[in-house]
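Course assignment 3, question 2. Fill in each field.
Student: A.L.
Task: Predict the tertiary structure for the chain below.
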Amino acid sequence: MNSKRVLVVGAGLAGSDSAFHLAENGIEVVLLENKTIQKNPAQKISSFAELVCTNSLKSMNPNSGHGLLKTEMEKLGSLVLKKGHECAVPAGDALAVDREAFSKAITEALTNHPLITVHAEEVESPIAAMEKYNCSKVIIATGPLTTDKLTNWLVENLTKDDFYFYDAIAPVVDSDSLDLDKMYFKDRHKELSDSADYLNAPMNKEQYEAFIQELVNADKVQPKDFEEYKFFEACLPIDLMAERGKDTPRFSCMKPIGLKDKDGNLPYAVVQLRKENLLGSAFNLVGFQTRLTYPEQKRVFSMIPGFEDAKFIHLGSVHRNSFLNARKLLNWDMSSKEFPQIYFAGQMTGVEGYTESASSGLYVAKNIVKQFNDETFEKWPVQTAIGALINYIMTAQRPAPSNINFGLLPTVALNKEQRKNKDRKKIKKQLVSQIAQDAFDEFFRGKSC
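Answer field:
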């Protein structure tokens, strides 16, 4: 068995970043991906690192949780962020990408790397796969829709119980099928502009309440008899939000704040659309993950102003997201307590989100590189974004997936003058961000990222 060859199972965001990081550090990688043989229900294309939900990797602002995480990932040489910037489409201060161009770029970078060998293969047993490819370690980064065979192995050998919740995908609409006379381009809190990144469909109170009622009444995809929906709170289906209260969407993804129309009026509610690609030929409905059946999506979403004759490139869907109880099953380096040669990365560990998954892949790869170099494992500072994410999943008493947010990082105390400042929230975020960046740099001082 080759002591310095690593098997990576899954070429999603976590698997892609971990495989590339290992290879860039001189370690041979065997990358196995099953989607070219059979796609899972959420996948549409055959290339790697497919973005199955939104095309946004979220904020680049370092004074936000997502921006801070990206700052650390860039210092670690993230392939996902590098190709994300190369394939970016306009989205304000967020990093949104052309999905297909991004996926193609990631695939080419991995398949062309001299230390990475790619095979199309479904894995049933990670132990058997390691032996087959003469690897000493394996990273399982199969994401939220792990195949049944591998899921069965994990349940039988590791988890002994269920490890899943449900997520939902937002629909994408053909821009040529929209009635733009009923909509307007505007970014929140900015002036109206045809070059704005977001297209807005305004609703008055009557339109909104009728729409919400139909979301509640519509037929929805039901779980199987032996399953129960367990949705991630930060990514709830729009129809579930409607069921929680008629004003819930209006204070969430449909909030009109900062979106006055051309007459200076603030709509009662707004449906926002974001460009899917540079051409602007397609838009996704921001925050409109849904459980509605396909016919009901077409019927109910046609009630949105400008959507009367809308043609959908793909409709929303519900899918299972699998994750482990990390605190119970994993060591701090993300290796299995039961099988130390098996590591986990991505949403399998309990992180939620594109960059969160990719960053966990970098974290695992970095730890494996250190081990191969006979360096002692050290916990990453909880003051850092990546360290805070790992600390969360390793200490949460009740496992629940989490995005990166400042609530995971230690709080900072403001002085008397700062507390009196009307911008104290902004000041606090800046302080947390600066402390995090300093902690990250200090932790890696003299070490190779």
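Instructor remarks: The chain has a mean pLDDT of 90. Residues 73 and 359 are 6 Å apart (CA to CA).
Grade: pending
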